[in-house]
Amino acid sequence: MDTMRERFATTASRLLDEDPRLAVVLAVISSDRFKDAARAHPDRVIDVGIREQLLVGATGGLALAGMRPIAHTFASFLVERPFEQVKLDLDHQDVGAVLVSAGGSYDIAAGGRTHQAPGDVALLDTLDGWTVHVPGHPDEAEALLRHAAADGDHRVYVRLGEQSNRDPLHVPPGVFRTVRTGGAGVVLAVGPMLDATLEAVEGLDVSVLYASTVRPFDAHTLRAEVRRAGAADVVLVEPYLAGTSVPYAAEALADTPHRLLGLGTARRELRRYGTWAEHVTAHGLDPAGLRSRITAFLR
């Protein structure tokens, strides 16, 4: 199976053939994957070099000129390093673009802290009007990218990572899918966390919801499942900073007595290299770690 990043490059190249309004903006990262597309569309595959602020600035300029730009690099270089440009050149100018990151929270663990971005979604939450997709499988990544490219002039962030579920679960953008039902609690698994979550709650009487789009947050489905289950305990399992979506879940359940547990990447920095899988375990996001914390919370 190809990775989400590989699928992105293939899909974006095809989209350039299909839609003359699209452009891909790169900052060296993944440029080798767009060599053929650059030859076919030299005016719409733009590599600005190792200049991440310019990456976003050029994206904003293309949007102001009526294009639908797709900007791509690692998450730490796409959201964190050029955040001022994201805020001013996209949000303040009120123009649309598609930002597609790779690397997840710690996929490139050997690259050190500069290549880790568990706070990217939380940072975008400080801005207005962003749709955020977190696919859990390459097939989902392709579908969400195609939807984002055709999504008018909206601002969309597509977060890609190495971790993937075994099978795709196609869900309409902006909707949570009920995967299983129970009565002792509701667990919301985001993107690539679904398989680990299902393994973690095996034998527990809980509902599991799945989200591949977290912004907008599907308050309706969460609220309906909590009321159906008669459960007051809600757990969020996200592949980025723990608690990122807790305010949205709390708002959704403002008129319902409840308890919330947000699981994800800890704020504490792991000063180790290793692999992304080792980081998943170290943050307690593997099945064993999730089960331990979920069962303790439900007790």
Automatic annotation (TrEMBL):
Residues 2-167 form the Transketolase-like pyrimidine-binding domain. SUPFAM superfamilies: Thiamin diphosphate-binding fold (THDP-binding), TK C-terminal domain-like. InterPro entries: PDH/Transketolase, THDP-binding, Transketo_C/PFOR_II, Transketolase-like_Pyr-bd. It holds the Pfam family Transket_pyr. CDD domains: TPP_PYR_DXS_TK_like (cd07033). This is Transketolase.
